[in-house]
Amino acid sequence: MPRTLAYAAPAAGKPLVPFSLDRREPGPHDVDLDVRYCGVCHSDIHQARDEWTGATFPMVPGHEIVGTVRRVGAAVTRFKAGDLVGVGCLVDSCRTCTPCRRDTEQFCEAGPAFTYNGTEMDRVTPTFGGYSARVVVAERFVLRMPAGIAPEAAAPLLCAGITTYSPLRQWGCKPGDRVGVVGLGGLGHMAVKFAAAMGAEVTVFSTSRAKEADARRLGATDFVETRDPAVFATLPKRYDLVLDTVSAPHDYNLHLATLRPHGTMIVDGAPPTPTPVSAFGLIMGNRRLAGSLIGGLRETQEMLDFCGTHHIASDVEVIPIQAINTAYERMLRGDVRYRFVIDLATLAT
Length: 349
Ligand code: NAP
Ligand code: ZN
Ligand code: ZN
Hints:
CATH architecture of the largest domain: Alpha-Beta Complex
Structural class: alpha/beta
Number of domains: 2
Radius of gyration: 20 Å
CATH superfamily of the largest domain: Medium-chain alcohol dehydrogenases, catalytic domain
Distance between the termini: 23 Å
Shape: globular
Strand content: 25-35%
Largest sheet: 7 strands, mixed
CATH class of the largest domain: Alpha Beta
Order of helices and strands: EEEHEEEHEEEHHEHEHEEHEHEHEHE
Bound molecules: NADP nicotinamide-adenine-dinucleotide phosphate, zinc ion
C-alpha cells in the first residue's frame, strides 16, 4: 500500500502537524496521483475546528487537488501516467440513485464519499484529503484540467470554482443581469470572475474597503463597503441575483432587501450558526432565498472547460505546507488574496 506523507489536525481546533497514512493499492478503476497543489478552502477550517460538528480525527483536509497521474488501473481509459488531473470535494458515490444518474452526485441518496472527513462507500474506511503527497481516486471522480492554466492557479477551481459557477448557471446568470457578490474571499473572487464572464454587471459587498481596487480588477463595476449596516438603507432594490459567500454569521435580511422583485439570493457560504430571516423580506417582492452545494462531476468538468476557454483562474498565494496554521489564522482575518494554495513539494522538506 502506498505510504503517504500528509498534514493532519489531530483533534478539533488543534494545529495541523505532520502525519503519514496508507493509501489503498489502486484497483482496476483507480487513478493514483502525486498531489502537486491543494487549495485551502474555508471549509477546511470549519471542519478542522469541528464548527459544523460530527468531524472525525485525525483529519487530513484538502479538496482542491491538482496532481500528476503516477499510474492507473488496468480498466482506466480516460487518464494515463503523466496527465495533469484534478480532484474536488467528492471521491465516490453510489452511482445508481436518481441524483447520481442525474449527475448531481453531491446529493447521492446514500450520501457521497466526501474527499476528507468522511468515509468511502463502505462507510468504514475514512477518507483523507489533499494536504498529502498522494491520493488514489476512482477514475469517475477524476477531472481533466484545462490546458494553459498554471496548476496552482487551477487548484481552487475544484471547490471555490464549481461552488460559484454552479449557482450562477442554475439561476440563469446572463448578459445584463445585475449580480451582487457578498464577501471577497476564495469563493467570492471566483464568483466575480464567473459572473463578469457570463456578461453580468457585478457589485461586490465587502467588509474590507481595502479590497475595492481588487474587486474592480477582478471584474466588478461597483463596490459597497458593508461594515456599517446603515449603508443598506441607501441602496436601490436592483439585483437579479445575490451570491452570498460569507463564512461567518451575518444578517441575510440586509442582502435580501437589495433584490429586485422575483430576485434570488443564493447562500453559498456556510456559517456554523443559523440566521433569522424575516418573512416580510421575502414576501415583499416575491423574493427567493436558495442554497447551493458544490456541483456534480459533469458540471465541474464543464466549469473547468469554461475556465480554459475564458482564461479564468484563481488569484493565489502559494505557501509551503509548514505555513498552513498561519494561513488559517490569516483567512479568519479576511487576509487572503484570494486563495492560499499549498505546494505539496514542500511536504518532503
Ligand atoms: P474565505 O476565503 O475565508 O472568504 C470568506 C469571506 O467572507 C472573507 O474574505 C470576508 O470577505 C467575508 N467575511 C468573513 N467574515 C465575515 C463577517 N463576520 N461578516 C461579513 N463578511 C465576512 O472563505 P471561502 O473559502 O471563500 O469560503 C466561504 C464560505 O463558503 C465558507 O463558509 C465555506 O465553508 C463555504 N463553502 C461552501 C460551499 C458550498 O458547497 N456551498 C463550498 C465551499 C465553501 P470581505 O473581506 O470581502 O468582507
Ligand atoms: Zn471547499
Ligand atoms: Zn447515489
